[in-house]
């Protein structure tokens, strides 16, 4: 039964959190899953990066500082950006399966990164169906990020910022994964392999989520 206090009804709107360390392959895999399952892909990081450069943004300087230091932006800012993006998608409508009769499908990438974010979003915006957790070694992630940094133009794709991001991720995000694991809502995928191998594993998780495999879990 849907919680009436949330913006979206989790019986109609599917939210899958996509987590994993920096460079774990979240963005690459999300792009594939969007093609296969008609998801709207919302990257918390992309929304924040866009907001920091938006003329007149009250959060721009704060976001810039957090990104540069590898720290986490206050949850109110990130949740507001995600909720607004979801409202816009639901209002405008999308073609394809999963978007009829007030329904929707969202992959939320790189969020929640802390426990307070997780609890607040679940309580006020929409209860997530499952956490798709991409795991690999820091060595693999560092190599990928440094390679990406050659062309990405991202100011945080350098060794010093990357190591700060790893520390933040281990301290703040791993407890989120542990929390959802206890609820039976984490599907871990080893993202060390090829894009195709990881995609096959991630696709099965999504099929299970859309079939309601995780919906029997009661939170709280």
UniProtKB/TrEMBL annotation:
Give the co-factor note. Binds 1 Mg(2+) ion per monomer.
What's the EC number here? 2.7.4.14
Q: Which InterPro entries match?
A: Adenylat/UMP-CMP_kin, Adenylat_kinase_CS, P-loop_NTPase, UMP_CMP_kinase
Question: Which residues make up the binding site for a ribonucleoside 5'-phosphate?
Answer: 49, 71-73, 110-113, 117, 154, 165
The catalysed reaction is: UMP + ATP = UDP + ADP
Give the top-level enzyme category.
transferase
Residues bound to ATP = 23-28, 148, 193
Q: Where is this region: LID?
A: 147-157
UniProt region (NMPbind), positions on chain: 43-73
Q: Could you tell me one molecular function GO term of this UniProt entry?
A: phosphotransferase activity, phosphate group as acceptor
Cofactors demanded by this protein:
Mg(2+)
Q: Which GO terms describe its cellular component?
A: cytoplasm; nucleus
Q: Which UniProt keywords apply?
A: ATP-binding, Cytoplasm, Kinase, Nucleotide-binding, Nucleus, Pyrimidine biosynthesis, Transferase
Please give the SUPFAM superfamilies that the UniProt record associates with this protein. P-loop containing nucleoside triphosphate hydrolases
Its Gene Ontology biological processes?
A: 'de novo' pyrimidine nucleobase biosynthetic process; nucleoside monophosphate metabolic process; pyrimidine nucleotide biosynthetic process
List the subcellular locations: Cytoplasm; Nucleus
According to its UniProt entry, the function of this protein is described as:
Catalyzes the phosphorylation of pyrimidine nucleoside monophosphates at the expense of ATP. Plays an important role in de novo pyrimidine nucleotide biosynthesis. Has preference for UMP and dUMP as phosphate acceptors, but can also use CMP, dCMP and AMP.
Quaternary form?
Monomer.
Provide the family line. Belongs to the adenylate kinase family. UMP-CMP kinase subfamily.
Domain statement: Consists of three domains, a large central CORE domain and two small peripheral domains, NMPbind and LID, which undergo movements during catalysis. The LID domain closes over the site of phosphoryl transfer upon ATP binding. Assembling and dissambling the active center during each catalytic cycle provides an effective means to prevent ATP hydrolysis.
Name of the protein in question: Uridylate kinase
Question: The organism's lineage?
Answer: Eukaryota, Fungi, Dikarya, Basidiomycota, Agaricomycotina
The UniProt gene name for this protein comes to URA6
């Amino acid at each position: 039964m849907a919680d009436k206090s949330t913006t979206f009804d989790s019986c109609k709107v599917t939210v899958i959190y996509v987590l994993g360390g920096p460079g774990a392959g979240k963005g690459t895999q999300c792009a594939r899953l969007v093609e296969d399952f008609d998801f709207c892909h919302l990257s918390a990081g992309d929304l924040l990066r866009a907001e920091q450069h938006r003329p007149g943004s009250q959060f721009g300087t704060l976001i810039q500082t957090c990104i540069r230091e590898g720290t986490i932006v206050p949850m109110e800012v990130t949740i507001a950006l995600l909720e607004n993006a979801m409202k816009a998608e639901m209002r405008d409508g999308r073609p394809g399966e999963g978007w009829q009769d007030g329904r929707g499908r969202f992959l939320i990438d790189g969020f929640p990164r802390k426990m307070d974010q997780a609890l607040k979003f679940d309580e006020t915006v929409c209860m997530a169906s499952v956490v798709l957790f991409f795991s690999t070694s820091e060595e693999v992630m560092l190599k990928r990020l440094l390679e990406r940094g050659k062309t990405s133009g991202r100011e945080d794709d350098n060794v010093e910022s990357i190591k700060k991001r790893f520390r933040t991720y281990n301290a703040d995000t791993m407890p989120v994964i542990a929390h959802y694991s206890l609820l039976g809502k984490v599907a871990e995928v080893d993202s060390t392999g090829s894009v195709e191998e990881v995609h096959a594993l991630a696709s099965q998780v999504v099929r299970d989520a859309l079939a309601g495999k995780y919906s029997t879990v009661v939170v709280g």
